[in-house]
């Protein structure tokens, strides 16, 4: 059903994108629907691979069907690198990557920035400016080695972290914009909802067959 190295993206209309994700337990093993159970490190590595495949800058666990408080993100040499081209290797342009387990975010600079264009891998093809984000934030999280970490970020990276934190609370970037903008994209969003429904039906059938194979 899927490339074993890449998770399918959950699209607008999928209920998992609207759930508040739960806290992860230490050393918890996870099962992405359609895949075998994996360690947290394996899931994080595969999420990063999926993010690079999609030419993204961040990816939250709900976007691959896991309602847990986990996201991955990267800082590229160029803030807009993920939107450029499509053939080059994004990994070679990464300054640093992040795996954030059970992140907790606080705002450092409450002044709002609306200057960046924002999009979402779960809402492909739709980009909008004007999403208000705090200029600087602090995130406390656990890394893959179980160590507590704290990072401060401003401008574009702060926006990335806020976008991914939103995903963990069932919020999408379009929610921050006026209702008329949603209406402008209504046709595209309806199409994504149809794709999502088809995917979920196919996934349910795939899981049913896997269960039968195990029983058989």
From TrEMBL:
Cofactor: Fe(2+)
EC number: 3.5.1.88
Active site: residue positions: 164
One Gene Ontology term of the molecular function aspect: peptide deformylase activity
Main function: Removes the formyl group from the N-terminal Met of newly synthesized proteins. Requires at least a dipeptide for an efficient rate of reaction. N-terminal L-methionine is a prerequisite for activity but the enzyme has broad specificity at other positions.
Name assigned to this protein: Peptide deformylase
Taxonomic superkingdom: Bacteria
Ribonucleoprotein listed as a keyword: no
Record field: catalytic activity: N-terminal N-formyl-L-methionyl-[peptide] + H2O = N-terminal L-methionyl-[peptide] + formate
